[in-house]
Amino acid sequence: MNTRLLSIIRKEFIQIFRDTRTLIMILVIPIMQLFLLGYSATSDVRNIPLAVLDQSRSPESRALLDAYRAADYFRIAYDVHSEAEIEALIESGKARAAVIIPPDYAQRLADGNAQVAFILDGSDPTSASTALSAAQLISQSHAIDLLAETFARTGQNMRVRQPVSVHTTVWYNPDMISAHFMIPGVIGMVLFAIAAILTATSVVRERERGTIEQLIVTPIRPWELIVGKLMPYVILGFFNTLEVLAVGHWWFGMPIRGDLGLIILLSLDFLITGLGIGLFASTIANTQQEAMLTVWMTLLPSIFLSGFFFPLEAMPTFLRWVSYFMPLRYYLVILRALLLKGVGLEMIQFDVLAMTLFAVGIMTAAALRFRKRLD
Question: Structural domain tally of the chain?
Answer without folding.
Answer: 2
